[in-house]
Design brief:
CATH topology of the largest domain in chain A: Rossmann fold
Oligomer: homodimer
Shape of chain A: globular
CATH class of the largest domain in chain A: Alpha Beta
Largest interface: A-B, 29 and 29 residues
Number of strands of chain A: 10
Structural class of chain A: alpha/beta
Radius of gyration of chain A: 19 Å
CATH superfamily of the largest domain in chain A: HUPs
Number of helices of chain A: 10
Strand order of the largest sheet of chain A: 1-4-3-2-6-7
Strand content of chain A: 15-25%
Chain lengths: 277, 277
Amino acid sequence: MKVIKTIAEARALRRQLTGSLGFVPTMGYLHEGHLTLVRHSRAENRHTAVSIFVNPTQFSPKEDYQSYPRDEARDLAMLEAERTDFVFMPSEEEIYPRAFSTWVEVTRITDRLEGAVRPGHFRGVATVVNKLFNIIEPTRAYFGQKDAQQVTVIQRMAADLNMNLQVVVAPTVREPDGLAMSSRNVYLTPAGRKAAPVLFRSLQLAREMWAKGEKDAGRLRQAVTAHIEAEPLARLDYVSVADTETLEELSVIDRPALVSLAVKLGKPRLMDNILLG
Amino acid sequence: MKVIKTIAEARALRRQLTGSLGFVPTMGYLHEGHLTLVRHSRAENRHTAVSIFVNPTQFSPKEDYQSYPRDEARDLAMLEAERTDFVFMPSEEEIYPRAFSTWVEVTRITDRLEGAVRPGHFRGVATVVNKLFNIIEPTRAYFGQKDAQQVTVIQRMAADLNMNLQVVVAPTVREPDGLAMSSRNVYLTPAGRKAAPVLFRSLQLAREMWAKGEKDAGRLRQAVTAHIEAEPLARLDYVSVADTETLEELSVIDRPALVSLAVKLGKPRLMDNILLG
């Protein structure tokens, strides 16, 4: 496994590769969700590259950029065990040199959900992913359904800017009790960790109602809200039942829908989602 | 010479090419300036592609998108004569489908000069050039120094987003009397056309002052302004003496400088520039 720190090295290596290249961009502190993406990439491509870069431009000044969990040695050992071909681990200066001033902005779908709560977040995500795509030049890039809006934003960007690659989305990987894997789960207190499966349970409740014929999006939101509010440690940030492409809120579920929610469980804020239809 | 209308056709053709590909993006209504770029590309690359697309997103609602000069048959004949390998001539719907919502924005350097006068112009330019680069995947892309700020914006975008290509800038091509070639020169009245060399003469005056040792940018601006104002048909929009990279106005010319100006000559608005140092 080659570990590469500079863009020049990545380009030189890329030029030597023949055949398909799968790419898994990450912010490190890897978990089973990331490793599943690596396995998908290995199954579908001749080579697999992973990037580890905690992207400062997707954090607002109030957010946890400095304290975002990092463990480089552990990440590299995990990727080595998955037989990753190369790991791109650039410095902040390599990605954002002093004169840097270009941004990729996906409009409209970023006004909603996480975008409404975290202004500038998806501009940072789209910009860094655009750069990484241009540096790595993958055949396919892998993302987890866990960050549903991020997936939509990256698919929109790749399509709108005619990026010559395929965006592949893999299902959310969960702990045995249903909690979606996330690097930020490490912030949960023992009590918070115990309460955390309430997110997925509330989504399962929504799925059951829908499967039994409920088409009223408002009733789904009410049921999820009531379920979350019954958990004393949880504070609901939002629950959404939206069109999977435009992310516009639905009143009637007459097309494929994304049910998503964000919940504060003490300090950490957790997200989860399911697709209906 | 192959003429291609869709992105799918362009991709299919691109996959078959081996060796270097030069690319000249244009808005059509070609003149000797464009053809010079094609010749540069042919000299430096195995294949040469030209695009013709009048990009609606770089025109403001008040500008001349509808009336921008177009002559497809003449353009294709000129490109054929230059032995261009392929011409990409997409429809507006092909480039901007209904759901399109992603923009590439180069900040800071676009606040000045043309960017200050034409809000949104460079966002449209950067976005369409980014798309065309991703569709054509050139080895080298060719632009004219005539549109100096556009060149700076595209170089900045390509560097910031790590686009894997080389941006090549060719000197401005001029009529025998010094008028810089431009598709918009066709709008000039006979009297306007006769007065138009005043732009380049005023720039030559600035160059002479600088060559004789003048380092005061203000005095250069004054001299250019006075020269333009002595022409009754001309109305000066701006004259700038700026750092070539940041486009920040200089007070002392202590580094490479761009002297640029925009002048209304009746209805059409002409631009020109020279580099010092």
